Write a sequence for this structure.
């Protein structure tokens, strides 16, 4: 990726004592933050509209906001779906594995119906043009093609993926998995979801995080949570520790440095709210979003709006590990790119 003309330079902050900061994880804090049905997509669409106001990617952010609004509507009365047996949940917990892995869990066919309902709601907000054409194409597609595209998304494989249709199908997957997690938690209690090995995977669906977020509030102040790219679950992860290779060595932060006369349009957030945590050990990075700098941040929205930071950090030699289903990087006509190969987007 090439840096955009006139982009603000990167500012590097090197962390000197990661062990001392990591010890704070011994303090009591909620390990898991499950998505709230009434808020998860509603908060996302509101933040996207706020960020879009004076952003170079305004049209795309508004489109994703409309998509999130449709996700919110569908989630409020989502149809019942098949749930895992209690015994299977307990067995997964003992093995430190996610009980409903994104690739491996048999999706209830209900998700296809609900995805089409979601896209039908979105369609009334999208004017004539390429986006409407893509919507109509996905709505008319047969189940087999959609399931095949969903499998590629779940496995983070770019070869054969329809990049134009991907955010639409991903929106259906996100809504289904969010509902699935909520249904299991309502039946079993949220403690049924335990820690996983590796700890970089979502405890519910095993997906990669989009970003990490340091939270505010009495119980969570200063603690970092990883935000799942698929089901929007958040789980605690020690600060100053690579979210790709789990190293605590060679961690430093990159951020956009404001200069006189330069507007930080590359993030949309307040200064210091979005940084890239870079690991010299493995060469990967994950964005870290700080609520203490901007209490209105939302993981998926602020990740989308800060793509300029991705471009600059990539130019500096680091590879993105965060996964945002609303904006995938890659060339589907070249080679297969999977999570195991470090592919992100």
């Amino acid at each position: 990726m090439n840096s955009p003309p006139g982009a603000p330079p990167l500012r590097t902050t090197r962390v000197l004592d990661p062990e001392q900061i990591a010890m704070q994880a011994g303090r009591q804090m909620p390990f898991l933050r499950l998505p709230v049905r009434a808020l998860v997509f509603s908060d996302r669409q509101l933040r996207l509209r706020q960020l879009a106001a004076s952003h170079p990617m305004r049209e795309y952010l508004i489109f994703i906001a409309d998509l999130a609004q449709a996700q919110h509507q569908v989630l409020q009365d989502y149809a019942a779906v098949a749930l895992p047996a209690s015994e299977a949940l307990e067995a997964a917990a003992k093995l430190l594995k996610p009980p409903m892995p994104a690739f491996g869990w048999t999706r209830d066919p209900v998700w296809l119906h609900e995805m089409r309902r979601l896209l039908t709601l979105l369609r009334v907000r999208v004017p004539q043009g390429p986006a409407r054409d893509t919507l109509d194409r996905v709505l008319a597609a047969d189940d087999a093609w959609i399931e095949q595209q969903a499998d590629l998304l779940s496995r983070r494989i770019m070869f054969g993926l329809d990049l134009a249709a991907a955010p639409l199908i991903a929106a259906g997957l996100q809504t289904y998995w969010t509902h699935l997690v909520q249904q299991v938690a309502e039946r079993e209690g949220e403690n049924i979801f335990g820690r996983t090995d590796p700890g970089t995977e979502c405890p519910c669906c095993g997906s990669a995080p989009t970003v990490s977020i340091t939270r505010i509030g009495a119980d969570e102040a200063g603690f970092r949570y990883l935000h799942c790219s698929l089901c929007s679950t958040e789980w605690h992860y020690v600060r100053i520790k690579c979210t790709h290779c789990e190293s605590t060595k060679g961690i430093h932060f990159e951020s956009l440095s404001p200069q006189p006369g330069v507007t930080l349009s590359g993030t949309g957030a307040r200064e210091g709210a979005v940084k890239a945590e870079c690991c010299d050990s493995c060469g990967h990075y994950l964005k870290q979003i700080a609520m203490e700098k901007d209490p209105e941040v939302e993981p998926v929205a602020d990740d989308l709006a800060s793509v300029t930071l991705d471009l600059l950090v990539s130019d500096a030699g680091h590879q993105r590990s965060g996964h945002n289903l609303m904006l995938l990087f890659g060339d589907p006509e070249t080679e297969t790119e999977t999570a195991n190969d470090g592919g992100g987007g």
Q: What stands out?
A: The longest helix spans residues 166-188. The beta strands are 10-14, 32-33, 209-214, 224-228, 234-236, 251-256, 274-279, 284-290, 319-320.
